[in-house]
Design goal:
single chain, alpha/beta, Rossmann fold, nine-stranded mixed sheet, two-stranded antiparallel ribbon, 6 helices, 13 strands, about 30% strand, globular
Amino acid sequence: MGKVVQSDHPLIQHKITLLRDKDTEPKKFRALVREVSTLLAYEATLDVPLVDVPVETPLATTTGKEMAERIGLVPILRAGLGMVEGVWDLLPAAEVWHIGLYRDHKTLQPVEYYNKLPSYPTVQLCLIVDPMLATGGSVEATIDILKRWGAKRIKVLSIIAAPEGIARVTSAHPDVDIHVGVIDDHLTPEPIGPDDPPAGYIVPGLGDAGDRQFGTG
């Protein structure tokens, strides 16, 4: 069975506070996303199996450890792109494939527009990276795509998650682990007045992670 892991690492909590600040500019925002992604990847790979390998030190031959699984990164475009470099800092040999999904703001359902997976799986562990796990629709759809492709082990890495999104993903895919920096309170409801925020945003959240990374808000 999969599990939901909310990080209690002080560095992650500190950096998420900076990410939330509406005055954090895109350059700093991108750097923070990268740093938090590195820390989340460290925690998400704690259970990667190892095999013994011989290694020559300057003084002797000994037995070392090597990861027994190849890992692939699956950023959900476009916001997930900002997390790739951070994970790559730890896993430079990881393959990266891109899946493009956008959320229809009327239905809040994901719409696939791009898929760059190879013909068959070449890794044993897929890490889906998306800064915000809000409604869970895009993540659920990505897991569906990866499972149809043949992926056997999948994990999700998100910086901030909403309870509604976690519930949706764990209900649809109870075998998938979810690693998050923090679980927030709720999603915004359908707007009533013209000044209300759009539906499906995480509260307190940090706004739109894609817009804040790429300066398009």
